[in-house]
Specification:
Blueprint lengths: L1 H17 L10 E4 L8 E4 L11 H15 L3 E7 L2 E6 L1 H11 L13 E5 L11 H19 L3 E8 L4 H13 L5 H4 L3 H25 L7 H4 L1 H14 L3 H25 L5 E4 H17 L4 E2 L5 E3 L9 E4 L7 H16 L3 E7 L3 H13 L8 E6 L2 E2 L15 H19 L7 H18 L7 E2 L2 H4 L7 H17 L15 H22 L4 H20 L8 H24 L9
Parallel strand pairs: 5-6, 5-11, 6-7, 11-12, 13-14
Antiparallel strand pairs: 1-2, 2-4, 3-4, 8-9, 9-10
Helix pairs in contact: 1-2, 3-18, 4-18, 5-7, 5-9, 7-10, 11-12, 14-15, 17-19, 17-20, 18-19, 18-20, 19-20
Length: 587
């Protein structure tokens, strides 16, 4: 990678000047020159004074002279308070541009390592909402970044298709559904089932209020609730394989899966394999009973099975209830084991919100206690929550923004902006508004650091002049228009003049692309790539405003600047596609 190559050459030069051994190499600090100073890269001289008998200023000066003489790509230097700022030659930057047109410049070296990445993990009792959207977008983008960085990646998800929450929807449909269906109600399947989950909670709350009005203590309600008892009985019947219960469970889940597929298609989400809790919990339960026999776990007097985690300063964890039914961590144990059997991964990444930090800490400790060698290769990619102006979303209250509704709103907002501009072909407005609406939504979710909470603001996300997806999309369309206007365009990688500062800045941004992918991959943070693409588009627009591209007399200059433009468009398109965002060639 050209970025690392020239840094290493500078390091070698410093090592040679001081005759440093390997143990002292860590004192060499090389960084990009700060914007307020002249130069491209800076050697920090302060830590190196101890290896010389010269004072800081004299050392900086003589080191600068040595580096300029021995590194042919260093054109000049200046010293600012112990910072040795180096300016690279135009020939160096032209060579960087040439290198960027070589095969596989954008894709980092193949690593021959396998990664399993889990994202989404929906429940089959409700539609996919805004919280799921951040999970899906982070997971899909992170998988694509890892692929770009040279890994073999398998995108998977676990569907939570069993448990008490599912039984609540089922019971609600049995008691209040009157043989209703998505077709009869004209509702998407996931919306239809979610409606009955919310209805169950409404009926349960009515029962709670009546229980309290009758003079009972509210703390006793869950033990004595008739609705909750019916739901729990339904769960036991399901786990025992009751024919009628299982038949209804399959029917309602199929309704939900049809709805999920429609949503996934609309946002371009794809998975290589889907695991189902209804299957993986069986493997988990067997592993737990085997662990009990090996005395890795213990059984309480009531028959429940637990794991002792006191060595990790964690409270003991329930693994199987006293009635033999499984808990969440049961299926997680089984799922992890099945995935290793399927893929033999070098790393498995769980893309799950930070509300589950403790859960995954416990899961990883249990798998380690079970002596799985691969347990050390598990990683929880924890991310912040998506907040709304009116507070936290709660599915049981129906207080959520569903992905489908949000997408429709974004498409509608984009369409209004496009129509008001009077620039677009009316025949293509719907397709363009869909592309811009999706781009605005996805970029807004992906641009913040993954660990930070996000306050979703639809209006801010679709601003064509702000730090947004549509701004980057518009820049790409602008470049496409420039390239299209240049008849018989020839890639030009050499000029007979000095580079303009704006041209050099563009080339420097181009050079960074492979390293941005690497950094985004290593930090598990798509925002690194998202912000790079915005800054690249921003730099290009500054270049466009200040430097004539098509309107200059020198044909070589025209071809060179169109070449720069073309390369920027290639990187913007590739990077945005990695984030799951499509780009229009005209806007």
């Amino acid at each position: 990678m050209v970025y690392n190559l020239h840094i290493q050459k500078l390091k070698d030069c410093v090592i040679s000047y001081f005759s440093l051994d390997e143990k002292k190499n860590s004192f060499i600090q090389i960084q990009e020159t700060k914007k307020e100073f002249d130069g491209d890269w800076t050697i920090v001289v302060f830590p190196l004074v101890k290896f010389s008998d010269k004072n800081l200023h004299d050392l900086s000066q003589t080191l600068g002279e040595f580096v300029t003489k021995n590194c042919d790509f260093v054109k000049s230097f200046n010293v600012v308070s112990g910072f040795l700022n180096l300016e690279f030659s135009d020939e160096f930057w032209i060579n960087v541009l040439k290198f960027s047109f070589e095969k596989d410049f954008e894709k980092n070296t193949k690593k021959n390592k396998s990664i399993v990445l889990e994202s989404c993990s929906p429940n089959t009792n409700k539609p996919l909402h805004l919280g799921h959207l951040r999970n899906i977008l982070l997971g899909q983008a992170m998988a694509n970044i890892l692929i770009e960085d040279g890994y073999d990646v398998h995108k998977v998800q676990i569907v939570n298709d069993r448990g008490i929450h599912i039984c609540k929807s089922m019971l609600s449909w049995i008691k209040f559904g009157q043989n209703d269906s998505p077709e009869k109600s004209n509702l998407k399947g996931d919306f239809f089932v979610g409606k009955y989950y919310v209805l169950f909670e409404k009926k349960l709350n009515e029962e709670r209020l009546e229980f309290i009005r009758s003079g009972n203590n509210e703390s006793e309600f869950e033990k004595k609730s008739l609705l909750l008892k019916e739901a729990k009985d339904l769960l036991v019947k399901w786990e025992l394989g009751d024919g009628e219960v299982v038949k209804l469970w399959k029917k309602m889940n199929d309704w939900v899966y049809d709805g999920f597929k429609e949503t996934y298609d609309s946002i371009g989400a794809k998975f290589d394999k889907i695991y189902y809790e209804s299957e993986t919990y069986i493997t988990g339960r067997k592993l737990i009973t085997d662990g009990l026999e090996k005395k890795l776990f213990y059984k309480k007097n009531d028959g429940s099975i637990w794991v002792n985690l006191k060595n990790y300063n964690i409270d003991d964890k329930l693994l199987l209830r006293k009635d033999g039914t499984a808990v969440y961590i049961t299926q997680d144990i089984g799922t992890a084991s099945l995935r290793y059997d399927d893929y033999g991964f070098d790393k498995m990444i769980y893309v799950v919100g930070n509300e589950q930090n403790h859960h995954f800490n416990v899961l990883f400790k249990i798998l380690k206690k079970m002596n799985f060698s691969w347990s050390k290769n598990l990683f929880h990619m924890s991310y912040g929550m998506v907040a709304l102006p009116h507070g936290k979303m709660k599915s049981r209250e129906g207080n959520v923004i569903d992905i489908d509704d949000l997408i429709k709103e974004m498409h509608s907002s984009a369409k209004k902006i496009i129509l008001s501009s009077n620039k677009s072909d009316l025949a293509s407005v719907d397709k363009l508004s869909e592309m811009i609406g999706n781009g605005a939504l996805k970029y807004f979710i992906l641009k913040p650091d993954a660990k930070k909470d996000v306050l979703f603001n639809p209006n801010e996300s679709i601003d064509f002049n702000g730090h947004t997806g549509p701004f980057i999309q518009y820049t790409y369309a602008r470049i496409c228009s420039i390239v299209e206007k240049k008849d018989k365009f020839d890639i030009k990688l050499k000029i007979q003049r000095d580079l303009e500062p704006e041209e050099k800045k563009i080339i420097k941004s181009i050079m960074h692309y492979p390293n941005v992918i690497k950094h985004s991959s290593e930090t598990f943070n798509p925002s690194v790539l998202a912000n790079y693409l915005f800054n690249l588009a921003k730099s290009y627009n500054h270049f466009y405003q200040k430097i004539p591209i098509l309107n200059c007399d020198n044909v070589d200059d025209v071809n060179f600047r169109v070449t720069l433009s073309k390369k920027v468009s290639v990187l913007i398109k590739r990077g945005m596609n990695i984030l799951g965002i499509n780009l229009p060639s005209k806007m």
